[in-house]
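During the first year of the project, the team set up a workflow for recording each protein of interest as an amino acid sequence followed immediately by a discrete structure-token representation. This format lets reviewers and collaborators read both layers of information side by side without switching files. As required by the reporting guidelines, we include two representative entries from the current panel. The first entry is reproduced here exactly as it appears in our internal archive.
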Amino acid sequence: MSLGTPATAALFERVSALCLALPEAGREQQGRHADFRIRGKPFAYFLDDHHGDGIVSVCCRSELGENVDRARRDPGRFYLPAYIGKRGWFGIRLDGEPVDWDDVRYAIERSWRLAAPKRLVAEKEHGGTA
């Protein structure tokens, strides 16, 4: 993956580790961004200067209205990404300090649950093989 800086590459690796730890998660990379999928459905995006916005972030699915609430509540940490923000996604900025990695992990896991089949989510939550 061709990322802007070594620091951005380290952020990408950390986000990748969180996403790929989830059952059946996969990753596809294109230039300076990557998408993470569960059975073909995206649940997270790593974006580095997406469409020239200068932002390094992870974008996640959200419950109805959560994306707007997060962006309104703390616009320094959260934003509505181009194209997908209007479809319920929000971005967590990774290019500021400090990054709340517990929140990043929680948002990624929640996003995975929204995209994954219900049976797989139930298996994961009940300690099954998933």
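The second entry, processed by the same pipeline in the following quarter, appears below.
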Amino acid sequence: MTEVGNLAAQLAQGPTRTFGGVKKLLQMTSTDSLESQMELETRTLAEMAAGADSREGVAAFVQKRKAIFTGV
């Protein structure tokens, strides 16, 4: 149970909005056509890249520090 709690805490500190976007994409893979899925992936990537968590992730990488995500 401790391991599950640790994993949940780790995921909660991550880019939660992006996690949600990926989850939605994964759920749609079995019902959408390839073309539709690729279009949705493109839109989702563009939307997530424009967010604050994306900028924070890049800044943290460049500055060689741990990212602090806000879910935005």
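For the second entry, the following points were noted during internal review. The radius of gyration is 15 Å. DSSP finds four helices and no strands in the chain. Both points are flagged for discussion at the upcoming steering committee meeting.
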